[in-house]
């Protein structure tokens, strides 16, 4: 077998079931073998892959994998992926002498036990994944030979107890993941076998109690995760010896303030998470300053969310946290913040604090800017979401000069005074969504030069606030100054009736677009006005926003778009009009959208596909799904820029052959769930070169002869069919008619399932002489016929001579044979040739023994001349069926008919009336059964 110089072989997502020994013998240089997502149940050996480095067997059906699979030649193997199989055990010799294996994936299997020496030979392994198995027992020294292992994942197993000897030998381990492993007990000093362990995750177990000797010998641990471990008791010295600890997560347990207060924590901790513990479950007991002060300047992140922490008289609690960067106080029922909440009275401040969140509390007013600004003058992110705040007063946040994000969402804010956000020169994101705003005061957003995103979603606004359109007496901007602040405005889920209030336009503006340039405060780039009550769109709505790039009007009640409505939006790239009430979408409504790239008008009431003007030259994506379109004739002047076309779930029953002819860059078409019963392959001729995906499942296809062309087209374009399967779409192309094929996948059919087998209904000689004859035939069910094969031979010499044969086209119904021997019986046969697969050139076409008379009428077909030494042809109709199937590769169950004839000496009939009748008496029709 010839050797092939191939390094990468990818066979993923197929139906492979067995890998035989030596199947890769011709690929000695193969380095990467990808067999994932097949149906492999057994592997004999990979022994011929001497240079293999990476084998991926993820997502198969392997139940065993032993040392015989990995031969002794696999010294170069570095990565082995056996995840998502059905392995139930690891045999001891599986990895023998695999000292170069670096990463092994055995996760998502059904392994129950790890025996001693299971991983012998893996002295060089660095990472081992055993998560998501059913492991309930690990023998001592199971990992003893894995001296180089740095990462071990045993999450989502059934370990129950951790012992000291379970991990013996893992002297280089840095990270150990034991989350969700049903652990209820930890042996004292179980960390003694680890010398370099830094990360230990024991979250989501049932540990209940933490004893002081559990984490002894854990000097190197830097991160300890004990979240949601059902802990309700901790001995005070449990963490005292963890002098390298940087992160401690005790969240979502049942630790009370009394136990927390006596805990001795190493001063090295930088991140402490004690959220979701009921610290106040004992009356009169609260978290005291001594607990947090032992961490002092080292603490950078503190999460006290949902602990019933009270911000009254807590200035001493935070006084020592001079390097604190993030403070989380969510969900604590805090109803006020006062001078005694933070240590500010002695002139102290904490410039390192960048984030404070007070979400989901009971605050009714904005905390005094004097308190927040003094405590955290460098604050970048401040969140007061999900409180009960009703009003924002002027200068409410003055002093927070470095604030970049402010979240005031989901409150009860109905009033925002002018200059409420004064002093927030660096503010970039402001979230006011989920409030009860109906109007906004003038100058609310003045002096926000860096604002880039503002959310007013889920309020009670009926129009876009005039703050984004005009400035009457603005102190910062004169009426002759153009403002360049670029912003994204989210005003979705408001009861908008128009984008711009008509009265404001008439009172304050002229129609000249230049005027708008002088009065505009913000330059809107993105406008989200989804889920409103808009019914009408006109050009007046967009004149103040000539810089819009993205416009989202999804899920309104829009019925009317006036001509040239989008004319002011010459920069618009994305337009979403989906889920509205549009019944038509004409080309004049798209005037001005020269830069449009993405258009979505799905989920409307369109009955015709949009027709595009020639200026739409950059459109890449068009979605007209979920409408009432019944025919696709043309998309007008839509250019070859279009790459994605979505026409799903319409009522389309007809697509013109030239519908897509200009869309030569098209990569994906979605025609699913329409009313197509037939579809021609001619539709895709002009676009098939670049087409990557075509989807048309869910159509009521009529699986008859007319569907054969698209059936064959799909066979020739398997890459498109493959894309259908890879698109996570389970629906197949199925037949709806006829009844016998209903719900049968089209790709599982054969051509004869679409059309009946052709049958030769007539075969006769219409002219007979002593050395020639003319043969005529007819056929029923001729759709599948690609041509005919004629054969004849001397009946008496059938076993000694091969027949002469001829292929003729499907329109031929007669043929003339000459130079026959008189008074000899000939067997003549005609067989219909099927179209089931691509025809292969026949050797008959080049046989020197076949002479063709070119001057004959085409309707009489060609003439074959039998010569003295008949040629050996590539088939015989009389061959046994199994042999014939192999030889006649371009035939599918075609029907054939034969007869026998004897040319007579002409002079016998020369003077006899009715001589033709006598001659035809020498014709004996016979069946294929007789011949075979």
From TrEMBL:
It holds the Pfam family LRR_1. The keyword Membrane does not apply. Keywords: Disulfide bond, Leucine-rich repeat, Repeat, Signal. Gene3D superfamilies: Immunoglobulins (2.60.40.10), Ribonuclease Inhibitor (3.80.10.10). This is Chaoptin-like protein 2. The keyword Isomerase does not apply. PANTHER family: AGAP008170-PA, INSULIN-LIKE GROWTH FACTOR-BINDING PROTEIN COMPLEX ACID LABILE SUBUNIT. PROSITE patterns: FN3, LRR.
